[in-house]
Design a protein that fits this description.
By secondary structure, this protein is of the alpha/beta class. It has helices at 3-11, 18-26, 29-39, 48-51, 138-151, 225-234, 240-250, 259-278, 287-295, 297-300, 302-311, 316-323, 327-334; strands spanning 55-61, 109-114, 121-129, 168-178, 182-187, 206-214. It has two domains: 3-258, no CATH class; 282-338. α8 (259-278) runs antiparallel to α11 and α12 crosses α13.
Length: 340
Amino acid sequence: MDASIKESVKASDKEAQYDEKAKKLLGHKIILAYILVNTVEEFRGMNPKDVVKYIEGEPYISTVPLDPGMTNTKERKEESIKETEIPEQIRGLNTENSELNEGMIRFDIIFYVRMKDGLTQIIVNIEAQKEEPGKYYILNRAIFYVGRIVSSQKGRDFVKSEYNKMKRVYSIWICMNMKENSLTQIYLTKKDIIGSHDWKGDLGLLNIIMIGIAENLPEKEGNYELHRLLSALLSSSLEAEEKLDIIEKEYDIPIEDDIREEVEEMCNLSQGIKEKAFEGGYLMGQEEGRESGYAEGKQNGYAEAVCLMYESGLSIEQIAGIIKMSTDKVKELVNPDLMD
């Protein structure tokens, strides 16, 4: 495992939120390369190590605002740019306001990828979700994100009416704790209703990739190579040694000896939550206690333990599995508004 991975794992201490750790781990180029070879047609079948070199610069992690007008590095008035002026190099995405606007929504991970022809680029956005949201359709959110990335290109990647220079966009969503492993691509298509005029344009400009990761670790076979890597990487139940073995032995990602302790510290977050939940009788060990204890949940500490686990990044399904309680009861303890 390279030095940058070592540094980010070291920086991810027990107090950090689980989703922030997930973003940092997913944001390493070798991990992003594995995602690219399984989702972008041009890189399909390539060795991920050979794809790393096509990822330009360092990915932006939780720093680029999603809000309209704040995604570009600089505000450039269209009338001040000549029709033929094209930036010689990408000036980058906005990170200047990240500390001044803590409340704004940011892309989890966003970066540029140079295609194999050495000329064209694509913009890739990675979003990590602990579970599929219940309050809104996740696909609607993905469409909004794609639209923002496309519109933010004007004044940065192309100017005036040079729409032919728009870059393809891939918004890739990784949803954990799904019922099954899945991989879906959503893109523009054409349907002739009257006539068959050949309208010029690139139907491949907008791409949404939905990756569903089941709770159980899949076997590394057939089409599940990426799912197994992501499942191991983001798992809150696997021990550190299991994660390290999978990353190093199965995916040939070198791990330095001194990184093992740091990975264990990262894994201690979920383990520490479980231990705290069991302290003071928060979680009943006997079958009768699991049900009767729920009725007095707030008195005996169930609510405190469940909320602690939820706020630390564990999903409703993960909590239910740990404490042997139904997901509906967990939702009610965390927040009654989560109930369907």
